[in-house]
Write a structure and sequence with these properties.
This protein is an alpha+beta fold and about 130 residues long. It contains two helices and six strands; from the N terminus they run αβββαβββ.
């Protein structure tokens, strides 16, 4: 009887864990190659389950374009050595990201390099945001 409850508990735990794993899929993004972008940070949202950076990218001969960049949550960023103050609104950053499969202005952040000139906040140091 006790074994039956143990098996039932294990199955329930798996049923809860599988949708969580599927939620963190990268299927919305073309992960075979990186897109390189540089721009000005307009918004930073360090949230669970995903953090976001909104960045304005200047297009040659055109109006600036807003890009939405999806990253891991705050704990994941912390684990990668990223501090809350490393990237702020108004900063210039370079990113290597995986573009949305639908070619919209969205990316899965791979790496961010702050170019704001503040060495204490990691100027010029590329860090992983996924």
């Amino acid at each position: 009887m006790q074994l039956r409850y143990l098996v039932l508990a294990a199955l329930c735990a798996m049923a809860v864990a599988l949708p969580v794993q599927a939620h963190h899929s990268h299927n919305n993004y073309a992960t075979v190659e990186f897109t390189l972008l540089e721009g000005t940070v307009k918004e930073v949202h360090l949230l669970n389950p995903h953090s976001w950076i909104y960045m304005e990218v200047k297009v040659a001969g055109g109006e600036p374009v807003l890009w939405a960049m999806e990253a891991t949550g705050p704990r994941g960023l912390e684990g990668n050595g990223i501090k809350r103050e490393d990237v702020k609104v108004g900063d210039t950053i370079k990113v290597r990201c995986h573009r949305s499969r639908d070619n919209s202005n969205g990316c899965l952040l791979g790496f961010v390099t702050p170019m704001h000139g503040d060495m204490a906040r990691g100027h010029g140091v590329e860090k992983e945001w996924d």
